[in-house]
Fold these 2 entries.
Entry 1:
Amino acid sequence: MLLVDDSALVTGALRVLLEETGHRVTTADSVASATAAALAEVPDVLLLDLTLPDGNGLEVLDRLRAEDRLPRTVVALTGHDDEALAAHCRSAGCREVVVKPVSVRVLIAKMREWVGEEAS
């Protein structure tokens, strides 16, 4: 999976959590680094922050779509609980929109769903 967020605290904490639950995690902190990482190895799941230092996270999807390298599941991460924004994300190709901060229990359950595992 590819986790994209410009906060080192967020990526560090989520990486540890996700790796402890058996996921292999690559991180990126910008549109450019996320695009490069996803082009190098298309992730099954892309957790994508919308606010990045070099642009809107949805630009990553545009770039990957142009190369026919979209991940199986894209989930937008945002600090804004806004239905218009969520609709825009879904129309751009996001399966879901997760509002930060997200509960650890919810995130782990969602990851199982996104990677096709059965919840235990």
Entry 2:
Amino acid sequence: MFHQNANRPRALARMQVEFEYFLLYYQFIKHAFGLEFAPGPIRMRLYFDTFPDTEEKTAQFKGYLLGLTKTKRWRTVDIQREDITEVRTRNHVLLQCLDIVFGSMSFRLNDKHKEKLADSSRRRKRTIAKEQLYRFILAEIGKIHPRFNIGISTSLHGDANRQWSDPYLHWNFVPADGVFESTLTKPRRKGKKENPI
């Protein structure tokens, strides 16, 4: 999941601003994985980075997630309160790997691959290495999704079941009632098409 800052929500209620982290992740968990298409009963464990808010708000958030399992769409999903937990990424190798994947995507989306040494036309070795990692990850995703574009959500090609079955999906979170502010995007050179690969 990623969010393009140029997609600005309109007139948010105070509660929406106050609970923005929790609302975002609630919607992500509810919609991004296609859990309603799971073929049979599954037990779900949710690992979050340290919650950025009070214990009271965190408890409310967990309650809403547990409430999802009471809906008809999530009838095959089981989540226990103790399975919604906070973790430190540095203590989990798989989460560190995910951080690398997400970091490489963010690196490219924010044009950090173009950064050069001060007073030089050369890029740092670390910048070059990060771009190579990004290209490798992109090539692997391209095997699953030919013509993958890092800047947009992955197409389901009209088959909602792919939310469950595809091994990788990329979701650009866009507010339903938002406005696109082009002044917050990178300027494009005229006549040049951006190739994400």
